[in-house]
Amino acid sequence: MQRRDFIKGAGIGALTATAALTSNMAQAKTKYRWKMVTTWPKNFPGLGTGANYLAQLITQMSGGRIKVKVYGANELVPAFEVFDAVSRGTAQIGHGSAYYWKGKHPAMQFFSTVPFGMTAREMNAWIYHKGGLELWHELYGRFGLLSFPAGNTGVQMGGWFNKEINSLADLKGLKMRIPGLGGEVLKRLGGTPVNLPGGELYTALATGTIDATEWVNPDNDLAFGLYKAAKYYYFPGFHEPGTILEAMINKKAYASLPKDLQAIVKAACQAANLNMLAEFDAKNPQALITLKEKHHIEPRAYPQDVLKQLKKVSQEVVAEIAQHDKFSKKVYTSYNRFLAQSIAFSKLSEQAYLNARN
Amino acid sequence: MQRRDFIKGAGIGALTATAALTSNMAQAKTKYRWKMVTTWPKNFPGLGTGANYLAQLITQMSGGRIKVKVYGANELVPAFEVFDAVSRGTAQIGHGSAYYWKGKHPAMQFFSTVPFGMTAREMNAWIYHKGGLELWHELYGRFGLLSFPAGNTGVQMGGWFNKEINSLADLKGLKMRIPGLGGEVLKRLGGTPVNLPGGELYTALATGTIDATEWVNPDNDLAFGLYKAAKYYYFPGFHEPGTILEAMINKKAYASLPKDLQAIVKAACQAANLNMLAEFDAKNPQALITLKEKHHIEPRAYPQDVLKQLKKVSQEVVAEIAQHDKFSKKVYTSYNRFLAQSIAFSKLSEQAYLNARN
Predict the structure, then answer these.
(1) Closest chain B residue by Cα to residue A288
(2) Partners of A131 in the beta sheet?
(3) Number of domains in chain B
């Protein structure tokens, strides 16, 4: 380097350092006002309160430097416009689940849940430590978004039925509210999947518009009063074995934060992820007791041969997503490889233990 | 209130407000240097790296306002002096597991794990949302400590054996390294429990000093090379179905932090809790493949009748802790009530799903 260049270089260096320092100090003082749009009714048990918990953590940990205000569905934007609203920066953060956005790309479903797929713990392992999050960021990055897991429902319930399911024949002609891939599985077995918003399930079931509906888990199902409109409660929820609730974040909004606040947002999502599942796991056992003892609901297992066929068709339906494009294939391959390994481990760990203990 | 008192009161109020403001500003500028003492060798996979992760989260989220330096076992204090060191304030935070301190109080074991007890998810549900944490704080408070879950191993493995276990008769005379309540269970079934530090297991097994040893899970067991010293690898680890790793915090050190840093420490523990289990769940399946394919280890299930008897004796041993004092009875009752409810839910949720899928 020539002397003239060196002097010029040093000058620029000093200027840059001063600018950086000023900018850091400005950032440390800046107050951020974030809007969180959600796909849930405000304060909806588990899901909505999980979004509140995330917002509170960010606000508390940042000492109010980021204030997050939570909006229920339709308060700022409708539930199914949350993705677009955060993508274009109308809100800085959103709370939903990736399979709602499968119209943008079918591979999104792998970042929520797929029929006969991974459990909550397996999803966390894949997302945080086996490349899942990188794939998710690759996909959401196309829309100007970052994404982190921020909750989980655990294995859901099979659903509420007014028709007994004794064999595969009973699925034929069954009108059931079951959206997404679970619905596609039912369709291939002769049923008629219907999509209805949560608020309409009770009436549709009570009036016979539908024969059956899935919803979430005992705690959420009890809150909706579905036991009053259906005779049978089936398990397990093969179609949603460990659904991730997501925090999607506008990339520019995230990039504008100083490093400590970025770390706070990220870790708050991880803490909220655990906390939602812990809350569901705490409440579901009591909700189940209430359903049994107060409302005389005796949950029934899907028959073995029905489950076997549901599994076979589920695997076909999930494999078809891989055919959509190169990226879908990449996600499917990563997901399926870890799932297969994880099943082998689960057989001598979680599954073996539960079978010995229960 | 008389006028004189009112004026005096207002004066004190103003002084107090000014003092509080000054103190808040001082607190916001204060840099905290925390020592984290741990019961693990420095950087030990999963457990030690989990402690590192917690320390990093606190340092990053606080923008360096709390700098946490991690010490491995024996660097500052020996492993089993971690509790006392944090209790007296030699270190501000410690990373271990509550059953190590059962000599202080037998009820501590409920905050780690007990044989045939709760899984990782059930522990989180009980601790965070069913009163477990309040009981834990009541106990640790006696020692000037706060405590939070900061990791979990999931269901551990049964252990490494040089003797086949085909019936209860094979447990008689079995010299096995299995500490704590699991050891007590073995003893009542005619075995000889031995306690040895992790570093001595390989040699003890290889030289025949012991017939068997439990350790942690495939990932940790592979790292220790135990497959080279034993013929059989049994599952499931009935004695440790979901062991919590703890962060214990000196109460005065915690109280001296401003509210935002307190929130950071607390949420960092929750994030680290999830992350350790996710990391183990990510690594165990691969470790299992390596054990099988490279080292030709074919894990074996404990026979059904052996498990049945282990369960019966485990329940007796755990129930005896309740006899120690009123507080132990209170913890046992809370734990056992939720466990019973949770088993009923698990049967139609996690267990039913794993049995259908695997």
Answers:
(1) B345
(2) none
(3) 1
